[in-house]
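Can you make up a polypeptide sequence alongside its tokenized fold?
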Amino acid sequence: MAEVADITLTVMVGGWGHRFLPVHGTNCHNHYNVIHDFLIRTDADRASIPGMLSSWELSEDGHTWTATVRDDGYFHDGSQVTGNDLLFTWLQAWGPGAQEVATSSSAANMASNVELIDLIGPQQVSITHANIDSSFEGFISDASGACQGIIRPAGDMATIHDAEAMVDYDQNPIGAGIMAMTRQVEDEVMSFERFDQYYAEDRRVPFKFLDLRKIPEESTRAAALRAGDADIAPVSLATKDQVEAGGGQVIVGPEASYLRIMFIGCGWDYYPNLPCNDKRVRQALGYAIDKDALRDDLFGGPEIFEAKGWAHVTPSSIGYSPALDPFPYDPDKARELMAEAGYPNGEGFGKLIVNTWSSRAVPFLPESAQLAANYWKDELGLDTEVRVGDETALKKATKARDPLAGQILWRDNEARRDGRSAARSSYGTAPKDGSKGGNWSHTPEIVNQVQEALSVFDPAQIDEVWHDVFVRLREEHYEMAMGYVHVQWGVGPRIESWEPLPLAFYPSAYHTIVLADQ
């Protein structure tokens, strides 16, 4: 066995969103990727490999997945991972009552499609979907962009959605990942110790301890790297020289996050008078922004920002082609479309409010929203206002629709190789019982096209089928294409080399770290 350095590696991140509440929250990879094991892992090319599952199979009718838990998996308390643990985890996330308590819209959407979760053997659990869902494999992997694929120890089934039980777990989480938690100080630090019983020896970390610190300010992170008080932290070109002055280096994580620009409530019968119900308006706003200026003048060039792809579909994603790249800068066409829609020079449009937040993953997020608002004002004559708010509050308001209907959410989001689950969640679910949740457009043609694509499992067809779906969604423009960001990792002098995973906005592949003194 390789020598394990008796050191504490210090990693600083901008935040960690939800902590360990076992209802599959969002923005959780920074810490979930350390304490939890994912059911399906991915390799350096983001291809699926066994994680806590030794195998997963699909029934002939495409509705039921059977997952087999590996025999050599252990939780940090020493107990063996069993099918009962997976049953509890999935019932808590997607079983009866889960949709009402889910803190993640993708988890709530998945719950709406689950008909049955059943323990069929000591190490086997089956899950049956009402609608065929080929995205499920990617959804429960570490490459999904969400945290749906973790496994936690089973508790009392009677307390599966009990608020006190959830808080208790949040305070004392037990996982089955590469490191076990030893302490946590809210909004300050999470400390971990290497888990020597982790089943995959080639993914065990080469150091004994890890401190994950929440440091929102980039200048503070850069100063800590220079002083030797941190080993890994997200930085930008503005602080690159400072990191290198301390003997460190900057390592690029490609295609980490993308700008997700969402028209809230548009295309819904509930809000018939919104200007953005007209596709010409949505498209005009896309044509009115100079993406090259966004890339070069704000982000600093293509080594930080690339104006390619549509929403979560970046060049490494299933279904990508240049046909999905953002609309070109064409202010004349933008003005023409706005006039056709009945809003020449912005007349009668009303105020366009753009909501955003200070991102932990994407530098200059509020500034990019303001740049777009300036283009819409200058090119289209719109009265615009950018509001910088709280990320969690804005996500809740977006889910509720009403508070932000007719407005824009200018946010960051996780890039991913397999965006099928995102398309299912956003566009492939018809509303039930007057619900306003689920997707951005319940146009039957779009819902049907997405659902038909979800029934395709042939690897030779998947790319083409989903390319057609994404081209249609780009044309509809309920989400505006803008581009994606490469994450810049500042790495201190104690680390000789590190190979973070592509399409990962969070610190990843800790096992690839080579320490300078080894």
